[in-house]
Amino acid sequence: xxxxxxxxxxxxxxxxxxxxxxxxxxxxxxxxxxxxxxxxxxxxxxxxxxxxxxxxxxxxxxxxxxxxxxxxxxxxxxxxxxxxxxxxxxxxxxxxxxxxxxxxxxxxxxxxxxxxxxxxxxxxxxxxxxxxxxxxxxxxxxxxxxxxxxxxxxxxxxxxxxxxxxxxxxxxxxxxxxxxxxxxxxxxxxxxxxxxxxxxxxxxxxxxxxxxxxxxxxxxxxxx
Length: 224
What we know:
alpha+beta; CATH 1.10.630.10; two-stranded antiparallel sheet; 14% strand
């Protein structure tokens, strides 16, 4: 692939190829960009609009915060700290509908977990959906309540009770970017549109590679 022209150097694939990676490494980098940088954020935003449409009072407060903080100006990185409710909304979405709903690991030795014997070379999965909706950690865990994330609530949670981006040394390196991206996109759309849920029943989730819905997300956009 020709990468000498300025326009070519702007392509993501061209930038990756300039690092002289192997074919397997290039494929791995591109898969990471598409999966982690697009698919997961899109899933989180879809569920955010569903939750807002199902909770009109919260959606109204969401729009009021946008109007108060942004007016007619597009949101920027500098506005993030002032968009407090939107940050809580996205945090609550990551709790209730974590786009990456399971974290796979491979055991390197025999492990005893509370009496359960797991042999070496066994793939195990950490079920984020179950953890994030555990009543030991969250009051009324099946209810969308962004304001639960006020004050020092997150600091009171046990380690690994909230891990939408994983934990430990393998925490997702795109955490800050993904959070920023989702917040700004939600704010940008919310400035101009209100979304109304058009489904006949509550959404039914279907965990695949990322969190999905069985019957899509039928929504109607209404200009504000």
